[in-house]
Structure formats: C-alpha cells, structure tokens
Amino acid sequence: MNRKELIRIIHVAKRDRCLDNETYRSLLLSHGGKESTLEMSDTALHRVFSAMKKLGFKVKSKPVPNKPKSAIERQISMIRGLWLELADIGEVRDRSDRAMNAFVHKHTDIGRVEWISSAQASAVIERLKKWRNRIA
C-alpha cells in the first residue's frame, strides 16, 4: 500500500479505536517519532499502523461501489421481487426462498434459483408475470 493509503488507514484506525486527539498524538510520537503522519517516514507509518493493529484495529475491505450486476443476478433479483409481490397480494402463502426455490424447481427441474441459466430465469420471470397479470 502506498503512503497516502497508509495515512488514510491510520486515520480510519484512530476513528475506529475511538482515540481522542491527545492519545492519538501520543501514539504517533511513541511509535512514529512525530506528532503528525504527514511528517513521518514510510517506516514510521508502518510502525504506527502495526501499533494500531495491536490495539485491535482490523482492515476491512470495502465492496466495490456501483459494481454492475450480471444479467443472471438481475434476473434472480427480478424473480425474488415478483415472488414477494405475489406474496404481498396474497397469491403466495409462503414468501420464503425455500418456497420460491420449490416453484423454480417445479418449472425448471433445477433445485435452486441461483443454479438456473439465463434462459430458464427468463422463462420463470415470464411465468411469474403472467400469474401476476391474471390477478390484477
């Protein structure tokens, strides 16, 4: 990780560990030799980062923002949405994934919605839409 990222992570660690400014500056001075991360060498920054980890800080990776869903993921979301919509209007008694998977299995011979192909998902979506339109 580069210098800028390391400084940012140290600041996140300060917030995560709820360190007040005085305690934080003391930690920087004792482990990095300076009271500011901007004045520290890369080696000193790594020492401060190690000290933060010893205090219990864990780096958490962030999910990639706006990651586009694949076509099949969108189809599965649509199947779930239609299933829940049918449950909301009283056509489906059991709104669980287990019941939805049973419906998918009945029409595709595949046990779970996550395992169906895009073509099978399209067929299930159309079947659910027709069911919904018959009611409305």
UniProtKB/TrEMBL annotation:
InterPro entries documented for this protein: Phage_Mu_Gp16
Pfam families from the UniProt entry: GemA
Any idea what this protein is called?
Regulatory protein GemA
User: What species does this protein belong to?
Assistant: Limnobaculum allomyrinae
